[in-house]
Amino acid sequence: MAWRPGRGGAIPAAVLLFLLAGCASRPPEAPPAPPPPPAAPTAIVMDAADNAGLQGALRQVAAKPVDEVVGWANPDSGKRGAVKILRDGYDSANRPCREFHSVVILDKLYQHATGFLCRQPDGAWEVADLREFPLFRRPD
After folding, report:
1. Cα(35)–Cα(54) distance, rounded to whole angstroms?
2. How far apart are the two ends of the chain, measured CA to CA in Å?
3. How far is CA 48 from CA 10, 71, 131, in A?
4. How is the chain split into domains, by residue range?
5. Residues 94-127 as b or e (16 or more Cβ within 10 Å = b)
6. Contact criterion met (CB below 8 Å) for 85 and 61
7. E-assigned strand segments in the chain
8. Average pLDDT, the chain
9. Is residue 62 exposed (0-12), middle (13-18) or buried (19+ Cβ within 10 Å)?
10. CATH no. of 48-137
């Protein structure tokens, strides 16, 4: 017996509902999560260009008065820093020396150091007795 409109409409409607239920669309998938941000550095490792910047600042500060700051920066590595003469004096060999403080900065990391620049007989300055302090991380 064939189905005719107006007769037994409840059964075909149920069948139609059953057939269409499989066509229900699924909610769209969420887009993939963005990649995590790069990990924050945990150490400051100086490359050749960073060392050249620091050495240049040490050469410049050797001729500056006490408490004058000389800065340096390497935009390629993101490192920067400063050097300052703390006081003048003489070492055990009676060479003129200058105590200095330096800081190297990378993001929120700070590496402090102190040492002495002592004048050699040829007039050049030599770094002596360099002491690095523990790495400091600036809080957020």
Report:
1. 35
2. 79
3. 84, 17, 20
4. 48-137
5. eeebbbbebbbbbeebbbebebbbbbeeeeebee
6. yes
7. 69-74, 79-90, 96-106, 109-119, 125-132, 136-137
8. 86
9. middle
10. 3.10.450
Give the chain's radius of gyration (CA, Å). 36
Place of tokens 């990649």: 35
* Structure confidence by residue, pLDDT tens digits, 71-127: 999 999 999 999 999 999 999 999 999 999 999 999 999 999 999 999 999 999 999
What's the confidence (pLDDT) of residue 140?
76
Question: In sequence order, which residues have a C-beta less than 8 Å from that of residue 57 and are 6 or more positions away?
Answer: 70, 71, 72, 81, 82, 83, 102
Closest to 43 in 3D by CA, of 113, 104, 131, 127: 104
Where would I find the H helices in the chain?
A: 10-21, 48-62
- CA-nearest of 61, 36, 57, 38 to 46 is 57
Helix (H, G, I), strand (E, B) or coil at 115: strand
The alpha carbon of residue 93 and the mean position of all alpha carbons in its chain are separated, in whole angstroms, by 42
**Amino acid identity, position 92:** S
**pTM of the complete model:** 0.70
